[in-house]
From TrEMBL:
Descriptive protein name: Large ribosomal subunit protein mL49
GO-annotated cellular components: mitochondrial large ribosomal subunit
Subcellular location: Mitochondrion
Family listed: Belongs to the mitochondrion-specific ribosomal protein mL49 family.
GO BP, sorted A to Z: translation
Keyword Ribonucleoprotein in annotation: yes
A GO MF label: structural constituent of ribosome
PANTHER family: LARGE RIBOSOMAL SUBUNIT PROTEIN ML49, MITOCHONDRIAL 39S RIBOSOMAL PROTEIN L49
Organism field: Trichoplax adhaerens
Organism lineage: Eukaryota, Metazoa, Placozoa, Uniplacotomia, Trichoplacea
Record key words, sorted: Mitochondrion, Ribonucleoprotein, Ribosomal protein
Domain of life: Eukaryota
InterPro entries (UniProt xref): Ribosomal_mL49
Any Pfam family hit: Img2
């Protein structure tokens, strides 16, 4: 009784079958062949979508900006991640008592990045350089100001 009631209430061309307590859906091919072709042509309409791409200004909701076409003339370069974001991350260590900000994917002079970060965040911030992995560790939560600074530099 329930499968008949469910199939009569269903608006699409599907029939619900009950197998114990599991419901499964079986598609019925009730339309003639030429109606199927028209439906396929209807669903294959292509729409041209041109998304709004912010041009070097922070006007998007997420704050994402495309990188400059040519890298800025600085002694270092910061490559973007696979998802085209700035590689600045926050991490919590030592029993949730140590907050770190990590900058990854740095090419070039790491000490120039450190000097720029000291001017941005202040002289009292502890900054550690890992030259093997080309990463910089900053003590504290500084993801938003560092990301904004790197976007304004053109990375």
């Amino acid at each position: 009784m329930f499968p008949i009631l469910a199939s009569s209430l269903c608006r699409s061309r599907t029939r619900l079958l009950a197998y114990g307590s599991i419901w499964s859906r079986q598609i019925e091919n009730l339309a003639p062949a030429d109606q199927k072709r028209d439906r396929k042509a209807y669903h294959q309409i292509n729409y041209n979508v041109y998304p709004h791409i912010p041009l070097r200004q922070i006007d998007s909701i997420s704050g994402w900006m495309p990188p400059l076409d040519s890298p800025p003339p600085l002694p270092f370069r910061i490559n973007r991640s696979k998802t085209n974001n700035i590689p600045v991350y926050s991490e919590i260590r030592k029993g949730r008592t140590l907050h770190l900000t990590i900058i990854r994917k740095i090419e070039g002079d790491l000490h120039a990045v450190k000097e720029g970060l000291k001017r941005l965040l202040g002289e009292d911030v502890q900054i550690q350089i890992n030259e093997v992995n080309s990463q910089i560790f900053i003590k504290g939560k500084h993801v938003k100001p560092i990301t904004k600074w790197l976007l304004l530099l053109g990375f």
